[in-house]
Fold each of these.
Amino acid sequence: MRDYITSYLNSSGTPGEAGNIFWITVYILLIFAGVAAGVICMNWLERKIMAHMQVRLGPMRVGPHGLLQPFADALKLLLKEDLMPEQADSVVYHLAPLLVVVVAFTVFIVVPFGPSHAVTDMNIGLLFMLGVSSMAVLGIVMAGWASNSHYPLLGALRSSAQMVSYEVAMGMAVLTAVLMTSLHGGGIYGVGGAQESGTGTLSMIGIVQAQAGQHVWFIFKFFPLGLVSFVIFAIAMVAETNRAPFDLPEAESELTAGFHTEYSGFRWSLFFLAEYAAMIAVSSIAVTLWLGGWLRPFPNWHGPQVAIPGFWQAGSSNGVVDLILAMAPVVAFVGLGGLCFLGAWRMAKNPLFRIQMLGLAAFGALLALVGLICVVPAVRDRVQDIFWFVAKVAVSMYLYIWYRSTFPRYRFDQLMKVGWKVLLPIAIGVLLATATLGVVIQAVMAA
Amino acid sequence: MSPTNPIPAFDLKEKTYLDSNELIINMGPQHPATHGVLRVILKLDGEKVLGLECVIGYLHRGVEKIAENRTYAMFNPYVDRMDYVAAVSNGLGYCEAVEKLLHTEAPPRAKYIRVILTELNRIASHQLWLGTHALDIGALTPLFYTFRDREEILKIYEKYCGARLTTHAFRIGGLQYEAYDGFQKEVKAFCDFFEPKIDEYEELLTTNRIWIDRTRGVGTISAKDCIALGVTGPVLRASGVKWDLRKAQPYCGYQEFDFEIPTGENGDTYDRYLVRMAEMRQSLRILRQAVDRVPDGPIMAKIPKVLKPPSGEVYHSIEAPKGELGYFIVSDGSTQPYRIRVRPPSFVNLQALELMVRGQLVADVIAVIGTLDIVLGEIDR
């Protein structure tokens, strides 16, 4: 038994490839907990960031700076009455939120947090992600239909039309990136000093490895083609997850709450959970395909070699740049901890605030501790990939919040126009241009 | 025994939504975007509006009837509760109407302070409109910016008369309160503070591609239709009619100020937005002139303690932030008005809603309700 568990540690692949059920289970649980924690963080961050963009404070009451607000909300939602409209189709009504949540979490099976940090690596990983995530529209249509009410029905109709349309442009953008895995960069524009031309792959891990092998993130490859396809994907993914400015299915001012108008309590919170999990999932696709996945910035720039006994070994890929960037998780967590300490120190010196102050300081200490643990070489080397991946996803999530507080909402017909008449032609054009450019470069290099 | 179905059995054709093309949707009276308790019954073909019917009266308090049992002075605070976001304008209209009936006029100092407070009120009303209108179209942030800045105006009101919203700032014949120390300085400081804030709002919206897409060509109404329906205020001006009662029939000393009437060309939602933004700037211009020139002197005209206007009738209208606000008062020579009839701009402007949204989409209904700048307290009275 013990051998069975430890045997995986020596392999370099994902637990799915190694076929080790124990580690598959561990990874699934870790990712489930991680995504759920991410949703909780997003809940708090979205409120705080939006509040500060809108000259307000946001949650301040539950815990220091409202840190416990998501937990209070979750508790409230669990305790709320579970209502169902009398005329609703009960089976479908109860099935819809479950379907949406299952779909949102299933896609994380193939998300590569590191070269071996994924539940499994499929040779059709990307296809699997896109396919499974588009199942979410079924759950939304079911919710809208089963509610047997006007507003949810309109919301569900809008949402299905929207998600189906934007998937087309999204697919074209994704194809561009997939195509890039097989195309030789030829060293044009000074980037893409390719060592290997790659063979083309749909495997999520393979796509990142192709970027590592070609020495270029696909967002910079064939500039501006990679960038344009990334932008198209970035727009389509906002529409795909029904977020502002494309949040028509739940347009508050028009359809009250869209497809989940009739849901309350825990079932509503499942929709909420699924929405944020889906946001993280599509951001992961964007990061994997264009932003180098788990690769750190400048992954091929090592600088002069250094060695610190017992801490840092000298080696061809262990330069001073590697050392500095390896400290990024430490700096990030200790910095966040420091911010908490600063906040605790700046809090009003009043006995009423003592518990809040201590709580904030304790939270800061926890974050700093996590940061310090990341100094330990054994941990440091293992969290690098995960840190960079999560950091890139976090940037994408921040953009979601930023859009939401900046843009008005598109009207339905305009949304369709943007999807079909603007994004899709550009995406097809970029795909063709990428293919043409790749073939030309290959021909030139062969000659 | 199966429970009785309260919904009458439809024939098969009407049983599902998909079989019938028309969908009747009841928007409001509890709806986040109907600005209070407006109920709109929409007849939809998919998302397209085939027709609509407004149901009003959820906020009816019988203000006009109440007036018949109150003395002229006692009725004064009630008018604040009609258009509660522009209470000062309502008060100005009422006080001036009664003064006209009494053949008296407020002294110059009172008039200047009235102009200052009314123009501040116009800005506050437009700020609230901008915030809620942008919120309806999905831009969340302007609401908080406008409320932050509106607070400065409300602070001036609070200092002047102790109330922030339903101010009851004016009395028949002038003012009850003298301006507080530093009133002019604070209004001037507000002007300097607010001018860059308008740019801030415009930065978020005016050139925003989505905002333009959502508002341009939406809810278009021609000048002819506006006049036929009696639509006034920024809605009329955005259709290209240069009609502003402050210029057309100057009252309260508006003839002494130098300002322009912003007009639009297309009469669409975007033009109405631009007109109101320009009006805020013009209001600042009036404020700057008025603050510098407030004369000294009494703040109350010589009027009797007990108001007994001679029998007769009077109609007086002012340019409220939302349009022409008129008071028609019939006096029978007693201390109480025989009849008061209010011409509220929101009520008249709301008539244009159906014309403006027919054939457009559900999302446009929301945008147009926002752009009409209605206040249900005034519509229902």
Amino acid sequence: MKTGRFGPFGGQYIPETLMNEIQRLDKAYAYYKKDPEFQAQLKDLLDNYANRPSLLYYAGKMTENLGGAKIYLKREDLNHTGAHKINNALGQCLLAKKMGKTRVIAETGAGQHGVATATAAAFMGLECEVFMGEVDTIRQALNVYRMELLGAKVHAVTSGTRVLKDAVNEAMREWVGRVEDTHYVIGSTMGPHPFPMMVRDFQAVISKEARQQILEKEGKLPSVVMACVGGGSNAMGMFYHFIEDANVRLIGCEAAGRGIDTPQHAATIAKGTVGIFHGMKSIFCQDDQGQIDEVYSISAGLDYPGIGPEHAYLHDIGRAEYIPVKDNEAVEAFEYLARTEGIICAIESAHAVYQAMQIAPRLSREESIIICLSGRGDKDVAAIARYKGRDLHE
Amino acid sequence: MSKIGNAFNNGKAFIGFLTAGDPSIEKSYEFIMSMVQAGADLVEIGIPFSDPIAEGVVIQEANIRALSVHTRLEDVFRLVTMVRKESQVPLVFLTYVNPIYNYGKDTFFAKCKETGVDGVIIPDMPFEERDECAAEAKMQGIDIISMIAPTSKDRIREIARMGEGFLYIVSSMGVTGTRSEIKTNLKDIIDVARTETQVPCAVGFGINTPEQAEKIAAVSDGVIVGSAIVKIIAKYGNDAAAPIYEYVSAMKGAAIKGGA
């Protein structure tokens, strides 16, 4: 197999200007991955700064109410900055420091990865610039201000469709122009090798903890592990240490927006085809000419026309299943979790909660399900209120 | 050597670029012919793409204009056929890899041969991913034109060794677009490349004035100009043929002067 491939997917489809840097990054990561000092520093940051390990919470009320499998929530929403994104941001910023970089750039959709990167950069004394689609800077205005508070410069991207995909384009363009002192902290398991592998490794702490936690609580493995999928970083993190456990079903929930039979969705696996974009061969929503589609989801974090190459591979070999969940279904789960468990989760994570609500009643009480609650929902409250017809603004 | 070599037989070469379908296929044909009459030695035709990550704002906007009139690959091939009826000027495509992959690699390169395209430049397909299309292109005799960047360093030799058609030397860091100054030591890069290959070295990214063209032609085999021409198209729209002719004439003159 060629470098950085997951079956036929992955690769390094990027401009020549970036190749030396990407190869340097690949070598540096391979070294630090095995460096006990780096790993100890990262663990210290995760435990003492980011609040790991995160809880594996038994959702008793939800379990009783649905009347099937026991439901556990992997509480990434309780991490510092409120989402799983900090796991990767700390890892990559620490690596950037080791590589002698003084500046990091990042793309962001909902703003969670931007906030996580700005946080890690502030903490480690790195200059930080974040690229965010203009549309997203409006729907997630609070996160823009948060990043600015943390000392980051936020660029509102006005090219293309002005959302996450365009933010990635613009961050890539910035990196091509200034690579010597700058590391690009890609926020998901996407982009050219080594990013999909590296981001997965930094997020794999989720399933490393969860596997041990469920064995302690239940004495056996769960029947199902689920997560929402945009680019796929919380899902890869949640799946990774369960991949070898053949009896554990892995389910990724993608954004079906207004429905996969409408043009307004971001359901890559359900509706996409194989292509090459953003540095990787994977599955993308695109037209018959290979033009990348404008996609849509109520959730800015899932509003991406592609999926990480390792997910494409897990889908291809039948190891993981991917199910589309619509806006209204995610909102229903968002409200349900708030009322039954007193937890306001991110609208992204609510896509997985909805699917768990469908699956749990069909399983027995002897079985368990783990849902990755990838983030908290504070950022979404105003948008959900508006979705429900309440004229509420931040 | 393919027909691309002919582009370098008339003094230092001038290579002009436009995006197919900006503002229409018929106008792209007219503008290409205008470049050829003004002395362009090779024409680079951009296949419009929704997300051109290696392009600056000027060419991004040309892509948007071309896609807004629904330019399809079939239309771009039709443009090549139109040009081929009138001219034997070497033609290369500038395209991201996804439209090729999506169209079908075999069909794409077969169609290139059938219509008369001589080579392709794929900015998001570095040396390491060449196998993505190398066999399909070779089978049809289409050159894959490799890029060498200011950051290529120890990669220059390997890239040059595999060079076909010409080597595209990227003048500066960053995306396409006009620049007031080009600081990269191009001569050093080209000297290294020439130890490995006979293939000509043309320089692109940022070149827009006759002074730059003359200076760069002096150290290379030709200059590639994209954004400056696309700017003329953006400014004059349907009436860009005459200003393009004037501009390309001046630039070709400067390139020849640089080689003298």
